Amino acid sequence: MTRRRRPRILLLAEAANPEWVSVPLVGWSLARALAAVADVHLVTQIRNRDAILRAGLVEGRDVTALDTEAVTAPLWRLAERLRGGEGRGWTTLQAAAALAYPAFERAVWRRFGPSLRAGEWDIVHRVTPLSPTIPSPIAPRLARAGVPFVLGPLNGGVPWPRAFDAARRAEREWLSYLRGAARLLPGRRATYRTAALVLAGSRHTASEMPRGTRTVWLPENAADPARFAPDPSRPEGGPLRAVFLGRLVPYKGPDMALEAAAPLLAAGRLTLDIVGDGPLMPALRAQAAALGVAPAFHGWLPQEEAARILSRAHLLLFPSIREFGGGAVVEAMASAVCPLVVDYAGPGELVAPGRGLKVPLAPRAPLVAALRARLEALTPPEALRLGHAARAHVAAHLTWEAKARQIAALYEWVLGDRRAAPPEPLPEAA
């Protein structure tokens, strides 16, 4: 029996960096995982080049870094001035990215157009940007060349809950009120009309795809088991150990976590580590003093140190009210730490009965009360049981290696008979 040739994938990840976090780390991690199941050549932006070469990739053979700084840098500087401060104005940054990104794909086509037209690549897969609002001008060109185009996982655009409009304003998310205008961006319709397959990182994003788009649900976040594992010395008795992990910004709800936990902190029934930094840090310290409690404020920490603190916890207390993916939730689950989240968007899709806890999305006061009730009812042994179930789920479905296998199956479908429905990478109840 002849062994099937591995697919040749031109992987576009404008943001892919092993030394950064968030979207660049997703781009890098997925690119490296896919290299185990396909012949991958990574195409990225020049700002990532040095870090990627330090990680061991060889320029020309494994990676090509394209210089679009003449367009990208001025737009990024403008967005930084307009966003209203570090940690705010995410939509402003996305708008800048949408304006800058076409220059990257034009550079891709100049460099790889001849080899694409010559049939040297089986699939072009755009991993980043993750935003579904940013078109890919390369898509119709690939369709004419007969090269299938895959996008994603895409994620974003989760509506702001009406009860948290004050948080929206505090985040300086003025442009989010106009997000619907992104549907009018030139090239958006052609991008989805010509794409062979779209991977949607959330059910909401899948629901926003134009009619007729072949879409499957595949969360963009995953965990590296070598980085995230439980601490075997965690006690089963004593106070419940909780941790908040994330940027200290209004939509992530660290103030709600602190308020919900305050009575248990005061009674010695719970400890709380707050790992992260951001514009809310002074207000959170003042809130803790007013409540008469003393959580451990760690500020920003290197990922290894943050993972160590997470591994000692029983519970991730993460009441974000507008989280697209939920990377911190996946990391907690991989560490056998029970997640307690709001049942909305990414975290609500990752956490299911038996492997974590959810509270319904509600206005602030009832949401805090629901969080507090969950904390009061939870014991360390029960948290450990749920955490180990969560870790088993991550091992089966949400490691980077598992994600690469899921995408490899989708590559087979793209290169096969597309009249059938694409395989679902995750079970419906996942």
What does this structure look like?
By secondary structure, the protein is α/β, with parallel strands linked by helices. It has 2 domains: about 10-220 and about 400-415, Rossmann fold (3-Layer(aba) Sandwich); about 240-395, Glycogen Phosphorylase B (Rossmann fold), CATH 3.40.50. It is built from 16 helices and 13 strands. The chain has helices spanning about 25-35, 50-55, 70-80, 90-115, 140-145, 165-170, 190-195, 205, 255-265, 280-290, 305-310, 325-335, 345-350, 365-375, 380-395, 400-415, and strands at about 10-15, 40-45, 65, 125-130, 150-155, 195-200, 215, 240-245, 270-275, 295-300, 315-320, 340-345, 355-360. It has a 7-stranded parallel beta sheet with strand order 3-2-1-4-5-6-7, sandwiched between helices. A 6-stranded parallel beta sheet has the order 10-9-8-11-12-13, with helices on both faces. Helix 8 links the parallel strand 6 (about 195-200) and strand 7 (about 215). Helix 1 packs across helix 16 (about 400-415), helix 3 runs antiparallel to helix 4 and helix 9 packs parallel to helix 10 (about 280-290). The longest helix has 28 residues, at about 90-115. The mean pLDDT is about 90.
Summarize the structure.
The chain contains 16 helices and 13 strands. It is an alpha/beta fold.
The N- to C-terminal Cα distance equals: 35 Å
Main sheet attributes: strand count, strand direction, barrel closure: 7 strands, parallel
> Which sequence of SSEs, written as H and E, runs from N to C?
EHEHEHHEHEHHEHEEHEHEHEHEHEHHH
CATH superfamily of the largest domain: Glycogen Phosphorylase B
Query: Uncertain spans, ≥5 residues at pLDDT below 50?
Result: none
Helix content: 40-55%
